[in-house]
């Protein structure tokens, strides 16, 4: 049995990060999405300043992170850039991260469904968290994705 990880949850705006903490979060995202997944795309896409950023930490060590995109008149709140440090995989941190991200979205944007753009091979994982596929499969940066939606617990 894998031991239950200990972590603290941190949710904040981009302007609330120290330079060191911001660097660690962006480095994790680049290491996972650009390097590990061999995907050349604009990781720094201009959206981070308008998002909330959720991190799981063990002391000063970053274990996992996600960003929460605010709703717009045309879109529900979205969870994106879900990344777990390669050094901490196999500890169910992806599930913990998503549960914390869902709770943070529900707190910040009560009563609104939550969207994700999920890598297609993770559809079952996200489905276990209440997300339902709402699109056909499509390629994003060379990786198969599907759009998924999670209704609020209150809905």
Q: What's the number of extended β-strand segments? A: 8
The CATH topology assignment of the domain at 8-110 is Aminopeptidase
CATH architectural name of the domain at 8-110: 3-Layer(aba) Sandwich
- What is the name of the CATH superfamily of the domain at 8-110? Gcn5-related N-acetyltransferase (GNAT)
Report the sheet-strand fraction.
Answer: 25-35%
Q: How many alpha or pi helices?
A: 3
CATH class of the domain at 8-110: Alpha Beta
Key features of this structure:
globular, 3 helices, 25% helix, 8 strands, 155 residues, alpha+beta, Aminopeptidase, 8-stranded mixed beta sheet
Question: Could you describe the 3D structure shown?
Answer:
This protein has 155 residues and is an alpha+beta fold. The chain has three helices and eight strands; from the N terminus they run E-H-E-E-E-H-E-H-E-E-E. A hairpin with a 2-residue loop joins strand 2 and strand 3 (61-69).
Write a compact overview of the structure shown.
By secondary structure, the protein is of the alpha+beta class.
How would you summarize the topology of this molecule?
Elements (H helix, E strand, L loop, with lengths): L7 E6 L5 H18 L14 E8 L2 E9 L8 E7 L8 H16 L5 E6 L3 H5 L4 E2 L4 E3 L2 E8 L5
Parallel strand pairs: 4-5
Antiparallel strand pairs: 1-2, 2-3, 3-4, 5-8, 6-8, 7-8
